[in-house]
Amino acid sequence: MKLSTRGRYGLRAVHYLAENEDKGYISVSDISNALKLPDNYLEQLIRILKNNNIVVSARGARGGYKLSRNSSEITVGDVLRVLEGEMTSSQCVANRTNCDNEECEAYYVFTKIDKAINNAVNSITIQDMVNEKFD
């Protein structure tokens, strides 16, 4: 499984909002400048996050975006699923009806991989990311 720029950029933006929540609402241009991400693309991602209740917005001079709830209540899995869709290693696990081999030897392996991926992304909150210090 490989994350697209949607997942990577969106997760970075959510992390930035969490790190800077004391500043209140933050504009997309401020986020894109700080993270060196394309403004227009980031605007699209933020809109998706807003429509899925990860962030909220305010208009006006002090407007922008902030997290919809405490960063300890939002998981990496929440953000990635909104932007990437279901976290799966194989279409056959995500939608068993697409599988043309009902006795697939690899289904067990793919299922185990999916469970591990989902357990990992569901166990990490955005606050965990904020607390993590990189050397």
From TrEMBL:
Q: What is this protein called?
A: Rrf2 family transcriptional regulator
Keyword annotations: DNA-binding
Please name the source species: Anaerococcus porci
Q: Give the matching NCBIfam families.
A: rrf2_super
Q: Name one GO molecular function term.
A: DNA-binding transcription factor activity
Question: Cross-referenced InterPro entries, in alphabetical order?
Answer: Tscrpt_reg_Rrf2 (IPR000944), WH-like_DNA-bd_sf (IPR036388), WH_DNA-bd_sf (IPR036390)
The transmembrane residues are: none
GO CC terms, sorted: cytosol
